[in-house]
Design a protein that fits this description.
The protein is of the alpha/beta class and 238 residues long. The protein has nine helices and nine strands. The two termini are 16 Å apart.
Length: 238
């Protein structure tokens, strides 16, 4: 039995599946990841990506923040890929109970998946810091310069920037889902980002699968490890 067949059997035999992912699941939709050789962290920019996507940069150097954010973090033209469609099918079958994502691109929700916990927020929600009025992603990405509210306040994306805390309710709900799962599939994540990477330690179920192009610090915890392209893996599943 090869690894794809092993994964298929684990999915077939499980009824409480939780899927946990990172940027590697969105690359086949045309969105850059962070840590690969062509990723956002390896681009030559005025500041490094962690600085540019920090709360310090947002509040103290808002123009540079938005120059970078609007250029490199815009997912509006991206479409859900084979992975997202497969997960939607699993949810419709009643097998997939939750998707926990570090991604802010909204592709899981756009694919029709209902139970999604977005640990780092989403570009699709934005609000005025002054009056709390909501704005769409299109409002932000299509704006000239720094996006401002009709009241004159600064608009902030509802994403977790470096230096900010994860939303406690979202994190607790995700931990509960992981704890109750019988199969945890981790895909497209380096498992290097704290505290999201610590959440898989709450898994008490039978089988954990890690699918990633390269090794992760948690490979030793998994029953099945597949080092391959996400698309290649999921297009072979039924």
């Amino acid at each position: 039995m090869n690894k794809i067949e092993e994964l298929q059997k684990l999915i077939d035999d499980s009824n409480n599946i939780v899927f946990f992912d990172g940027a590697g699941t969105s690359t086949d939709s045309g969105i850059k990841d962070f840590r690969s050789k062509d990723g956002i962290y390896n681009m030559k920019t005025k500041y490094n990506a962690e600085e540019l996507l920090s709360s310090t940069m947002f509040y103290n150097n808002t123009e540079d923040f938005y120059d970078f954010y609007k250029t490199y973090m815009n997912p509006l033209s991206a479409m859900p890929n084979v992975l997202h469609k497969y997960l939607e099918k699993l949810e419709n079958m009643g097998k997939l109970k939750a998707v926990i994502t570090q991604n802010i691109d909204g592709l899981h929700s756009r694919a029709g998946i209902e139970n999604v916990y977005e640990l780092h927020g989403t570009v699709y929600k934005n609000y005025c810091l002054k009056c709390k009025k909501s704005y769409s992603a299109k409002d932000v990405f299509d704006s000239d310069g720094i996006p401002k509210c009709s009241c004159g306040g600064l608009i902030k994306p509802n994403v977790v920037l470096y230096g900010e805390m994860l939303d406690e309710d979202t994190m607790n709900s995700a931990i509960k889902a992981i704890y109750n799962a019988d199969l945890l599939i981790v895909a497209g994540s380096s498992l290097l980002v704290y505290p999201a990477n610590q959440m898989i330690n709450f898994f008490k179920g039978k089988n954990m699968v890690i699918i990633n192009n390269s090794e992760t610090p948690y490979d030793y915890k998994a029953n099945l490890v597949i080092h391959d392209n996400i698309k290649k893996v999921f297009e072979k599943l039924k």
